[in-house]
Amino acid sequence: MSSDLPAHPYGADIGAVLIDEPTLQARVRELAEEVSDRYRDAEEDIVLVCILKGAAVFLSDFSRALTVPAQLEFMVVSSYGNAAESSGTVTIVKDLATDIAGRHVVVVEDIIDSGRTLAWLVDTLAERDPASLEVVALLRKPDRVVVDVACESLGFEVPDEFIVGYGLDYAERYRTLPWIGALRPEVYR
Q: Which residues are known catalytic residues?
């Protein structure tokens, strides 16, 4: 954890940088290599399912680092709204445009917190009969996990703090930071 904050537009809202940009980018490339190795012999393009909005930045870098053909799909599911804690009720706001039956599907997730939303999503997608279904997640908070979801590739484990940057937000702010930081508690309480 670094206490030296790079220049950013959010003043004193960020308490610390947890994962700097070079470390983050290197690990995203490694995750893409791991997934590429697993699907090297796939006969069809894999389908990357991005959970918007949080995973969009991760998907962008991850997909460009893949060395196998991939198609991009997007879903919006909601369990947070503008709250700091999940409501526990998951709703699909935007569903997939592509039929994933018989396809190799990789869910691209920004962060596994409690695991409830991701577990629900994996179960929902599994009902659509994909050839395979796996999760690649950038971050996981091990101290918060309530429902353990299989994650074939994981970027980093992070502490139980409010994490922002690189697509992750609080009330739609902080997504554009190029690194992962911890939001000061007084900002979200």
A: 113
Domains: count for the chain: 1
Name the pTM for this structure: 0.90
Q: pLDDT at position 91, please?
A: 87
pLDDT tens digits along 61-104: 999 999 999 999 999 988 755 555 555 688 899 999 999 999 99
Sequence-distant (6+) residues with CB within 8 A of 122 are 107, 133, 135, 149, 150
CATH number reported for the structural domain that contains residue 145 in this entry:
3.40.50.2020
The DSSP-derived string for the chain is: -B--PPP-TTGGGEEEEEE-HHHHHHHHHHHHHHHHHHTTT-SS-EEEEEEETTTHHHHHHHHHH-SS-EEEEEEEEES-TT-SS--S--EEEE--SS--TTSEEEEEEEEESSSHHHHHHHHHHHTT--SEEEEEEEEE-TTT-SS----SEEEEE--SS-EEBTTB-BTTBSTT-SSEEEEPHHHH-
In a domain, 174, yes or no: no
CB atoms within 10 A of CB 88: 11
Range of the structural domain that residue 40 is part of: 23-158
